[in-house]
Amino acid sequence: MGSTSAENDGTAGVGRRDLIKRSAALGLIAVPTMSFLSACASGGGDDNSGDNNQGKTSKSNPFGVEKGGKLDVVVFKGGYGDDYAKAWEASFQKKWNITSTHTGTQEITGKLQPRFNAGNPPDIVDDSGAQQIKIDVLYKNGQLLDLSSVLDAPAIDDPSKKVRDLIIPGTLDAGMQEGKTVALNYIYTVWGLWYSGKLFKEKGWEEPKTWADFIKVCQAAKKEGIGGLAHQGKYPYYINVAIMDLIAKTGGLDAMKAIDNLDPKAFVGSDAAQAGVEAIYEVVEKGLLMPGTNGLTHTESQTRWNQYKAAFITCGSWLENEQLKQTPSDFDMKFMPMPLLPDSKLPFEAIRAGSGEPFIIPAKAKNLPAAKEFMRSMLSKEWSTLFAKEANSLTILKDGVDPSVKLRPGTQSTVEASKAAGDNTFRYLYLEWYSEMDTAIQAASNELMSKRIQPKEWLKRCQAAVDKQAKDPASKKNHRD
User: How far apart, in whole angstroms, are the C-alpha atoms of residue 315 and residue 53?
Assistant: First the structure.
């Protein structure tokens, strides 16, 4: 995840299907990042802080926002930058005369953990990036507001409907802990492989639909002195996009759910898991990785890829925004689904898709009414369009972006991939539910890519992480059907 929040995903089978269908129908799908936020104090509710600062409520002011006052906003300044948040804050000040204290940073944990610990958190946070404070940790510590009151409030664009009724189905799943929505993953994101349309055209390479053809392109690249696959070595989250996509596409949704549901055969005993990790290890064994990629940060690897030093890189759809300054004007960035292994249960077009970039409201926010109204405003067409203009990305709001907004080539290719995927989308939830387990799986992948362990040992370590998590009684409260 070191990029924009790149990590989280979540959506369970059916909701996810609707989600893509609707987005595709809208012609809106795209981009990026990942994690969601806003939770509830364990056992606590939306109003456990007493909503100090609350004034008179009405249909147009459901939380009783008092004009004047202050709002403390902290935004992860990654692939999407933070200009969109400044535009939101200007709009909010115009309507409510509320002055925002704005902090744009990549040091989310460093700047915010002490404030959470002291009981003095900001009012609203984009809790994303490599230094994200894990949502499940904040939730277990009772530090997140349950967002149900925001989601059940009248929608700004259509007060006859609730806010949640205007959100793409399935996109709220990533922000849930034990059945409560505690984070709002705001950006519609897809994950997969990326390449340069210009490079492929020059070399006469075609987008590979099978893993065998993917290996052939990597081998052709190597002969030209170009790496086959780059990955963000210091953040193994990214190579897990490839491994986990292969597992889901090979074994179908059951293989994915086995991991989320902490199955005793999630990894060891899973043919799909074995096939997926062995496929990635083939790239390592055949020397098809971009030289040095294992020791690079996300931006370092991505920049070398922009310099045509690798044919492919794994990432989420925030990649284009994150690399704007490093991408040549004629690079022609393209997104593609993970190629298929033999006998895969999902088609080539199937992609990991859902919501990313978690926004949370701390349970001890000083100005809860304004924080809730700010989040409600995020789910308006005005603010969704402001976001698309500033961040080249789509939000989870249905029909949320004015058609006049022009998307860049990479983001546009994710729109097309999402339309092609139709019902065939998937998304893991263990990343949001079980950060300790995710960290252990990332560590195993780091060892694998550095050739310090083999696929069999990787499977053992990942299964051990699953088994350890399964012993936590609280895990039983998270389940996918």
Answer: 42
Say which amino acid occupies 138. Answer: L
* Cα–Cα dist 393/290, whole Å: 28
58 by DSSP, 3-state: which? coil
Residue 423: CB atoms within 10 Å: 15
Q: What is the pLDDT of residues 153-180, one digit of tens each?
A: 999 999 999 999 999 888 898 999 999 9
Closest CA to 88 of 375, 393, 405, 394: 375
Euclidean distance between CA atoms 430 and 428, whole angstroms: 6
Q: Which residues contact 385 (CB under 8 A, 6 or more apart)?
A: 400, 401, 402, 405
Q: Is the pLDDT of residue 403 over 90?
A: no
According to the model, what pLDDT value does residue 139 have? Answer: 96
Compute the distance between CA of residue 319 and CA of residue 327 in angstroms, rounded to an integer: 10
What gap in Å lies between CA 185 and CA 8, rounded to an integer?
Answer: 9
Res. 118: pLDDT tops 60: yes
Helix, coil or strand: residue 11 = coil
Higher pLDDT: 130 or 302? It is: 302
HEC string of 429-455 equals CHHHHCHHHHHHHHHHHHHHHCCCCCH
On whether the CB atoms of residues 240 and 301 are closer than 8 A, the answer is no
Residue 323 — pLDDT band, cuts 50, 70, 90? very high
In the numeric block, which tokens belong to residue 441? 């799986």
Give the pLDDT of residue 338.
98
CA-derived radius of gyration, the chain:
21
How close are the terminal C-alpha atoms of the chain, in Å? Answer: 27
- Looking at the DSSP bridge assignments, the partners of residue 125 are 74, 360
For residue 14, what pLDDT is reported?
Answer: 33
Going by their DSSP bridges, the two strands 351-360 and 124-126 should be labelled as: antiparallel
- The per-residue pLDDT for range 424-465, each reduced to its tens digit, is 999 999 999 999 999 999 999 999 999 999 999 999 999 999
Query: Exposure pattern of 36-63 as b/e (b: 16+ CB <10 Å)?
Result: bbbbbbbebebebbebebbeeeeeeebb
* Six token digits for residue 474: 């609280």
Q: What is the pLDDT of residue 422?
A: 84
CA distances from 408 to 25, 154, 173, 348, 412 (A): 19, 33, 28, 24, 6
